[in-house]
């Protein structure tokens, strides 16, 4: 990407935001306020689901926790619009065919929400259950509202973004930054990295919980390689046609 392309891209972003900002900002604000209004009910539902009572220790903790929690839910709900903007920026450089642009868009949404669902239904319940299993009759658990919101938000967003790995690898392949054929030679090293990464990011140190992330992460890597190799063999870009200037 040269300086001319970058300047053109920034100019397009500025005019797009100037044109659509009058609609985007009020919509985003109203959506966030609606989520904030219902966030106490959502947290009450999570209390019942995890069979725990959330407590707070400072006067400002409830409002600050609700603001952060609302932003997490807001990001998850509005991710289709955020992702549409991101893939549109990528399209400025790659110039996808319309069919492949639509395919990339829906695959991105699918992977993101699969990651969120994976964290919500598998990783978080097992991790919270394991961590709370250390309580005894004299050692009762009191979960801070702020800590739970940070814990909950981090894993839902992290897993959602991690599951975008196949599309990220495919994008790097299209940009000629990575070559899938070369990455296949380092499968052992990459699997080891997946295990180490899973050990760092998962809430519990046991092998089962680490496997719940390490194995899907490595599978996502292989899917990314397959997708990258496939896209290299086909033409997914629109052909640029040079138009000659018309005579006056």
TrEMBL record:
GO terms for cellular component: TAT protein transport complex. The chain crosses the membrane at residues 21-46, 66-90, 102-128, 148-174, 186-202, 208-227. It is a multi-pass membrane protein. Keywords: Cell membrane, Membrane, Protein transport, Translocation, Transmembrane, Transmembrane helix, Transport. GO terms for molecular function: proton motive force dependent protein transmembrane transporter activity. Its main location: membrane. GO terms for biological process: intracellular protein transmembrane transport; protein transport by the Tat complex. It comes from the Bacteria. Forms a complex with TatA. Belongs to the TatC family. PANTHER family: SEC-INDEPENDENT PROTEIN TRANSLOCASE PROTEIN TATC, SEC-INDEPENDENT PROTEIN TRANSLOCASE PROTEIN TATC, CHLOROPLASTIC-RELATED. Part of the twin-arginine translocation (Tat) system that transports large folded proteins containing a characteristic twin-arginine motif in their signal peptide across membranes. This is Sec-independent protein translocase protein TatC. It comes from Caldimicrobium thiodismutans.
